[in-house]
Amino acid sequence: MQFSSNVIIIGGGITGYLLALILSRANISVTLVEEKIKESGVKDFDGRAYALSFSSINVLKATDLWDQIKEHSQEIRKMKIFKDNENYPINSPLLEFDKSDLNGENIAFMVEDRFLTAVLYDALGDDVEMINNSNAVSFEENGNKIIVDLDKGIRVSADLVVAADGKNSKTAKHFGLSRLGWKYNQTSLVCAVSHEYPHEGIAYQKFYPSGPFAILPLKGNKSSLVWTESSNDAKAINNLPDKDYLKSLEKKFGDFLGDISVIGNKNSFELDLGFAESIIGSRLALVGDSAQNIHPLAGQGLNLGIRDIASLADVVIDGFRLGEDIGSVQVLTRYEKWRRFDSTLLSASTDIINRLFSTENKFNEITNVIGMRAVEHTPLIKKILMYEAMGMIGDLPRLLRGVAP
Ligand SMILES: Cc1cc2nc3c(=O)[nH]c(=O)nc-3n(C[C@H](O)[C@H](O)[C@H](O)COP(=O)(O)OP(=O)(O)OC[C@H]3O[C@@H](n4cnc5c(N)ncnc54)[C@H](O)[C@@H]3O)c2cc1C
Predict the structure, then answer these.
(1) Are 155 and 149 in contact (CB under 8 A)?
(2) 87 or 45: which carries more pLDDT confidence?
(3) What is the pTM of this model?
């Protein structure tokens, strides 16, 4: 079987779906290839959830999806950050972000992966050619086109290939792009808990020497946890029977929300930092984790990916409307220039924060505490940090401002 489209996206995760939707709405034909079998409908809760920033929500608003997603999401009204020696949440935190510092703008919304994925999948409908359970085996340039051969004998001809196939991107490897980075020797244990008392939309992040421990509010009396330990300890905790896992968890969580119990699946993710040496190649653009994967301590990985696709969509849609070759170096260089600073800044800052806080080093500990307290008492710096986390600093593509291109 053989067909052609303007763009072929490899990888049907959230960034792949969202980009496919945005491009197809601008009359750009899209084929989306995903190696797993994906189906319509909301799955059982698997514990995965994301803190979506203000600018990511703007993209969902511009694609008319936000109202459906918002129904299932929980606003984060406040974020409190502690060092491990503080008796949270009774004592005042080291640093506190409140929506009142932003004239009432939302800090972020927590959304479970299963709702986000289901809404996006259904929105794609018949407008995008979806090929599930398939892998690309070769990419070959032919004049102004790129020919992609999939297993199962399918051949797609396109102007541009987008790699949205995650941090182990085979597509980037096919194009010979190398990846830089390092392992953290940390693993995040991820699960959700139900608790007795309401969280009131407050998110907590506590920095232990072994890694950060985040409690992120979900809809109802539920919270999502990202509990980071050294990889050895995480493995041992993961192997505990449920009752003992809960006991270890309670030690970190505390009892300020009353009794807790684990709901849904327990997951774990080994952490590393990775970034492609270039996010473009010949008729190729990388987005999302295939371009960079960062430490989850700031909950920014997916937000960064959404900023990638908003920028790529902007340049590709404009190029398409002007009759340019959307796979050309000229168009793709605009994308690379737009993204490099933001992604490098965020990759570096999450890496530095993790190194400074996930340590037993007393000197680092003292300087961190002084630094955090200084930020807490300097409203302007605090506001700048909040706008950066919201993805609202710099020259923004239209989608991040909530405008459909
Ligand atoms: C513990 C943890 C907590 C996090 N919390 C947050 C948070 O609160 N907020 C936030 O913004 N981010 C968060 N992140 C980051 C976020 O999960 C990722 O950045 C995001 O899921 C990346 O999405 P993606 O679509 O780029 O890649 P992926 O989600 O990895 O999707 C890639 C897709 O491509 C498919 N695929 C892979 N290879 C191929 C192939 N060869 N051919 C076809 N298909 C292929 C896969 O099956 C998958 O469907 C967190 C990450 C971790 C580890």
Answers:
(1) yes
(2) 45
(3) 0.93
